[in-house]
Structures are given as structure tokens and as C-alpha cells.
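REQUEST FORM: STRUCTURE PREDICTION
Request ID: SP-0412
Submitted by: Lab K.M.
Chain count: 1
Length (residues): 157
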Amino acid sequence: MKPYKIPESVLVVIYTPALEVLLIQRAGTDVGVEHWQSVTGSKDRWDEPWHETAAREVREETGIDVGDPGVQLMDWQLENVYDIWLQWRHRYAPEVTRNRERVFGLCVPNVQPVVLNPREHVRWQWLPWLAAADLCFSASNAEACLLLPRLADKGPT
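STATUS: Completed
RESULT:
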């Protein structure tokens, strides 16, 4: 049996200095439903630092290395707590119903192709920040995109 997921995750908004946002389309969604999102993912262990989770998930989901020249990972010091959707609750311990999500920004020098894990995502696109916010299926992801012009100026962590 697979171990239960840890109900602590990251949301990483990947963007350029021109505020173009990378969105990836989630695999395995209902027919006709397109779940576009930023990079997300849970901690692998309870004591995994937030920035390590963010760097790992970005690499796993897009192939982008946060250590590359010109790439800046920033902890935006924001957290969301939300109810875990019923269709995903089986991945967590039976008593777990809520998840804590830490929000990061990742500035890359320019729009670039990404390498998706086809088990998790099927398409990607770069969009202006407002268009990206409109396309996100998650309210917390849309809100992070809308905050981008204000938060993009925070320095690296």
C-alpha cells in the first residue's frame, strides 16, 4: 500500500519578468474538463523544508532547475488552507480533510519550453498574468496569479 500523502503542499507560480505565467494542464481529469494550474505538489516528508519541496516539484513537473542561472525561487510567505476535494481524499490518512499550501514564485529569464511528466500533465502554455488567472481551475492559484505584479518584486529566498 502506498503511504498517505502529507497534507502540506506548495504552489509555485512560474513567470517571466514580463509577467508571462506558465500553466500546465493536469492529466486524468474528466472528459471535456481542462484543469490548468501552476506547479503544485506535496512534501515527501514532514520535515522537508518548503523551498526543497518547491524546487523538487518544479523540476519533476517542468524540468526547470531552480539553480539555473537567472532563475529565482521566492517564498512569498503566503499560505492557503483548504478542504481536500473528495475525489482526492483517499490519498490522505482517513482523518485528514484539509491541506496547507505554501505559495512560491519562480522567475525565469524568458519564456521557455518545458518537459512535462505525462502521468501528471499533458500540455503547457505561457500566458499573460491576467489570462493565466482566468484559466486556473483553483481559486488559490488564480489569486496567486492576480498577486503576481505586487509579489514579483520580492527578492530570492
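NOTES: The beta strands are 8-15, 20-26, 36-37, 39-42, 72-83, 98-107, 121-128.
Reviewed by: T.R.
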